[in-house]
Amino acid sequence: MAETIRVLIADDQALLRGSFRVLIDSTPGMAVVGEAGDGASAVRLARELSPDVVLMDLRMPVLDGIAATREICSDETQAGVRVLALTMFDMDEYVYPALQAGASGFLLKDASPAELVGGIRVISTGEGVLAPTVTRRLIRNFSRRGETARPAPRLVGLTKREQEILVLIANGLSNTEISQRLVISMPTVKTHVGSLLAKLHARDRAQLVIIAYESGLAERGMPA
Asked: Which domain holds residue 102?
């Protein structure tokens, strides 16, 4: 029998916490292990309960969701905890800091129940998930700002194929879509993604997206 995915809900709105709890507890293979009404409580409960996934609202009192995410993801004792960030807005000032802080995924609160449950399930496996609108905004934002890319010596060790796949990941393509785009098998794609995670010391795909943008590789390699 598959292990139950243990979820901690962090949101300052009791009504939303209750709605999320009903949805998650009614989903086979998932269970809510705790609720937090502010970021500080989320950090404390994450340390006490060691959930698989923290459903993290980014706008909360005492300690906001971005700071709470940073504390959880920088804690070596919480290495197995994944954060799925939620917000009402897909504004750039929330998206990028949340991912930089270590969030493995980002969904808007108007996501469908199926998308939310799917996001929790994907993140619990160690992968990352980004709402399509979030990925598109990241692309537009970085292209518009034209910032000077940060030095990224870690990219030197990547093969040409790995760099190509990293760009596709940054553009929001799934493994299946990458397989179809490059006409290579799924096992080959998974091998390359695993190599990227190891070489770049990334926790998941979301961090690969950040590395691709910060290095400038995503912009240089974006299709016309």
From this structure: 5-138
Fill in the DSSP letter of residue 151: P
What per-residue confidence (pLDDT) applies to 84? 93
Q: Which of 164, 154, 214 is nearest to 193 (CA)?
A: 164
Residues 103 and 40 in one domain: yes
Going along 109-180, which residue ranges are E strands?
129-130
Largest CA distance in the chain: 50
C-alpha–C-alpha distance, residues 140 and 170, integer Å = 12
> pLDDT band for position 143 (50/70/90)?
low
Across residues 5-17, what is the average pLDDT?
Answer: 95
Half-sphere exposure at residue 2, Cβ-oriented, CA atoms within 13 angstroms: 10
- H or E segment at 43? helix 39-49
Q: Which of 29-38, 59-68, 138-147 has the lowest mean pLDDT?
A: 138-147
Per residue in 75-117, pLDDT tens?
888 888 999 998 887 665 777 788 888 888 888 888 899 989 9
Q: Are residues 93 and 154 in the same domain?
A: no
Which residues share a beta bridge with 82?
A: 53
In angstroms, the CA 83 to CA 88 distance is 17
Instruction: Give the H or E element holding residue 126.
Output: none
- Show which of 138, 157, 192 is a domain's final residue: 138
Please state, in angstroms and rounded to a whole number, the distance separating the CA atoms of residues 57 and 69: 10
